Sequence to fold (124 residues):
Amino acid sequence: MKKRIFFVILSILLIVILLYKFLPKNNYKDIGITGALVFKKEINNNNYFIIVNHFNQNTDDILTVKIKVDDENTWNLIETNNFYTISYSNQKSKEFILQQIEIANKNFQEMYGNKFINYKKEQD
Fold:
């Protein structure tokens, strides 16, 4: 009886270890949703990127981030010098990946548009 219980526990433990080892792992760290100004688009080695300015989540500073767009059709629809609400993730490779994008509402553009545009001019 003790041998049988031991083998059942050992089998369950082995199954859990194997599942953990072989099931796909989520390599993404969610960054969140933010309003952003897309000011540049790039293609490098058949990889599509947008470069955006957005507010730092902890301060009122503006950050510039390069985000990979996995879908070429999505990349084609994104227009430079437009405001978007974006969600992106960070891979273990430290590359940012676009998860979702939509046109920002007019209130966001009216409230923050000048700040983003002035920041872009200062960087040029």
About this structure: Residues 109 and 118 are 13 Å apart (CA to CA). The two ends are 77 Å apart (CA to CA). The beta strands are 28-44, 47-55, 62-69, 82-91, 96-103. Helices lie at 2-22, 72-77, 106-123.
